[in-house]
Protein backbone atom coordinates (compact mmCIF):
# COMPACT_ATOMS: atom_id res chain seq x y z
CA UNK A 1 0.00 0.00 0.00
CA UNK A 2 1.02 3.57 -0.61
CA UNK A 3 0.14 6.68 1.36
CA UNK A 4 -0.45 10.05 -0.29
CA UNK A 5 1.16 13.18 1.15
CA UNK A 6 -0.43 16.61 1.42
CA UNK A 7 1.50 18.15 -1.45
CA UNK A 8 0.01 15.65 -3.91
CA UNK A 9 -3.49 16.58 -2.75
CA UNK A 10 -2.66 20.28 -3.08
CA UNK A 11 -1.23 19.86 -6.58
CA UNK A 12 -4.35 17.96 -7.64
CA UNK A 13 -6.62 20.58 -6.07
CA UNK A 14 -5.01 23.79 -7.37
CA UNK A 15 -5.26 24.05 -11.17
CA UNK A 16 -2.66 26.82 -11.47
CA UNK A 17 0.16 24.68 -10.06
CA UNK A 18 2.68 23.18 -12.45
CA UNK A 19 2.19 19.63 -11.12
CA UNK A 20 -1.62 19.82 -11.19
CA UNK A 21 -2.29 17.54 -14.17
CA UNK A 22 0.14 14.80 -13.19
CA UNK A 23 -1.02 14.83 -9.55
CA UNK A 24 -4.69 14.76 -10.53
CA UNK A 25 -4.08 11.88 -12.93
CA UNK A 26 -2.17 9.89 -10.29
CA UNK A 27 -4.91 10.44 -7.72
CA UNK A 28 -7.53 9.33 -10.25
CA UNK A 29 -5.53 6.17 -10.95
CA UNK A 30 -5.42 5.40 -7.24
CA UNK A 31 -9.05 6.31 -6.58
CA UNK A 32 -10.40 4.32 -9.52
CA UNK A 33 -8.10 1.35 -9.02
CA UNK A 34 -8.61 -1.80 -7.02
CA UNK A 35 -5.36 -1.55 -5.06
CA UNK A 36 -5.79 -0.17 -1.53
CA UNK A 37 -4.10 3.17 -0.83
CA UNK A 38 -4.00 5.48 2.14
CA UNK A 39 -4.25 9.05 3.35
CA UNK A 40 -2.81 9.79 6.81
CA UNK A 41 -5.34 11.66 8.95
CA UNK A 42 -2.73 14.38 9.54
CA UNK A 43 -2.61 14.97 5.80
CA UNK A 44 -6.34 15.75 5.75
CA UNK A 45 -5.88 18.52 8.29
CA UNK A 46 -2.84 19.94 6.55
CA UNK A 47 -4.59 19.90 3.15
CA UNK A 48 -7.45 22.04 4.48
CA UNK A 49 -5.00 24.37 6.23
CA UNK A 50 -2.82 24.93 3.15
CA UNK A 51 -5.59 25.06 0.53
CA UNK A 52 -7.55 27.71 2.42
CA UNK A 53 -4.62 29.78 3.72
CA UNK A 54 -4.35 33.26 2.17
CA UNK A 55 -0.57 33.26 2.56
CA UNK A 56 -0.32 30.12 0.44
CA UNK A 57 -2.68 31.04 -2.41
CA UNK A 58 -4.24 34.20 -3.80
CA UNK A 59 -7.07 33.69 -3.72
CA UNK A 60 -7.13 30.73 -1.35
CA UNK A 61 -9.62 27.94 -1.88
CA UNK A 62 -12.84 28.33 0.03
CA UNK A 63 -13.48 25.88 2.80
CA UNK A 64 -16.34 24.44 0.73
CA UNK A 65 -14.09 23.94 -2.31
CA UNK A 66 -11.37 22.27 -0.28
CA UNK A 67 -13.81 19.96 1.49
CA UNK A 68 -15.58 19.11 -1.78
CA UNK A 69 -12.33 17.93 -3.37
CA UNK A 70 -11.35 16.09 -0.21
CA UNK A 71 -14.74 14.37 -0.03
CA UNK A 72 -14.41 13.26 -3.65
CA UNK A 73 -11.04 11.69 -2.85
CA UNK A 74 -12.29 10.04 0.33
CA UNK A 75 -15.26 8.58 -1.57
CA UNK A 76 -12.91 6.16 -3.32
CA UNK A 77 -13.73 2.61 -2.21
CA UNK A 78 -10.03 1.74 -2.21
CA UNK A 79 -8.81 4.53 0.11
CA UNK A 80 -8.20 4.13 3.83
CA UNK A 81 -7.61 6.96 6.30
CA UNK A 82 -4.65 6.09 8.51
CA UNK A 83 -5.15 6.94 12.17
CA UNK A 84 -2.67 6.73 15.03
CA UNK A 85 -3.06 3.85 17.44
CA UNK A 86 -1.51 2.80 20.73
CA UNK A 87 2.00 2.42 19.31
CA UNK A 88 2.04 5.81 17.62
CA UNK A 89 3.86 7.77 20.38
CA UNK A 90 6.65 5.21 20.57
CA UNK A 91 7.07 4.96 16.78
CA UNK A 92 6.86 8.74 16.40
CA UNK A 93 9.54 9.35 19.01
CA UNK A 94 11.88 6.75 17.55
CA UNK A 95 11.53 8.03 13.97
CA UNK A 96 11.84 11.66 15.07
CA UNK A 97 15.07 10.99 16.93
CA UNK A 98 16.50 8.75 14.22
CA UNK A 99 15.84 11.32 11.47
CA UNK A 100 16.56 14.36 13.65
CA UNK A 101 13.11 15.59 12.69
CA UNK A 102 12.91 18.96 14.42
CA UNK A 103 10.71 21.94 13.62
CA UNK A 104 8.70 21.49 10.43
CA UNK A 105 10.17 18.01 9.95
CA UNK A 106 8.34 16.82 13.07
CA UNK A 107 5.14 16.79 11.01
CA UNK A 108 6.75 14.50 8.42
CA UNK A 109 7.84 12.20 11.25
CA UNK A 110 4.21 11.97 12.39
CA UNK A 111 3.12 11.00 8.89
CA UNK A 112 5.84 8.36 8.71
CA UNK A 113 4.93 7.03 12.16
CA UNK A 114 1.22 6.65 11.38
CA UNK A 115 2.12 4.95 8.10
CA UNK A 116 4.51 2.49 9.75
CA UNK A 117 2.07 1.74 12.56
CA UNK A 118 -0.53 0.81 9.95
CA UNK A 119 1.84 -1.33 7.88
CA UNK A 120 2.34 1.21 5.09
CA UNK A 121 5.92 1.41 3.82
CA UNK A 122 5.53 3.68 0.77
CA UNK A 123 4.55 7.32 0.30
CA UNK A 124 3.73 9.38 -2.79
CA UNK A 125 5.17 12.85 -2.22
CA UNK A 126 7.17 15.63 -3.80
CA UNK A 127 8.71 16.45 -0.41
CA UNK A 128 12.38 15.47 -0.46
CA UNK A 129 12.57 15.47 3.34
CA UNK A 130 10.92 12.04 3.52
CA UNK A 131 14.16 10.53 2.19
CA UNK A 132 15.65 10.89 5.69
CA UNK A 133 13.25 8.22 7.01
CA UNK A 134 14.85 4.86 6.24
CA UNK A 135 11.80 2.64 6.70
CA UNK A 136 9.60 4.26 4.07
CA UNK A 137 10.06 4.23 0.30
CA UNK A 138 9.43 7.56 -1.40
CA UNK A 139 7.66 7.70 -4.77
CA UNK A 140 7.49 10.93 -6.72
CA UNK A 141 5.16 12.11 -9.44
CA UNK A 142 6.51 11.13 -12.85
Keywords:
alpha/beta; Rossmann fold; 49% helix
Structure notes:
This protein is of the alpha/beta class. The chain has one domain (2-139): 3-Layer(aba) Sandwich (Rossmann fold), CATH 3.40.50.1010. The chain contains six helices and five strands, in the order βααβααβααββ. The chain has helices at 6-13, 20-32, 41-51, 63-74, 88-99, 105-117, and strands at 2-4, 37-40, 79-82, 122-124, 137-139. A five-stranded parallel sheet has the order 3-2-1-4-5. Helix 1 crosses helix 2 (20-32) and helix 3 (41-51) runs antiparallel to helix 4 (63-74). The radius of gyration is 15 Å and the shape is globular.
Order of helices and strands: EHHEHHEHHEE
Whole-number total of structural domains: 1
Mean pLDDT: 97
Number of strands: 5
The 3D shape can be described as: globular
Under the CATH scheme, the architecture is 3-Layer(aba) Sandwich
CATH topology: Rossmann fold
Oligomer: single chain
DSSP strand (E) fraction? 5-15%
CATH class: Alpha Beta
> Which structural class do you get from the secondary structure elements?
alpha/beta
Which segments are poorly predicted (pLDDT under 50) over 5 or more consecutive residues? Answer: none
Major beta-sheet overview = 5 strands, parallel
The number of helical elements comes to 6
Distance separating the two termini: 18 Å
Strand arrangement within the widest β-sheet reads 3-2-1-4-5
CATH superfamily: 5'-nuclease
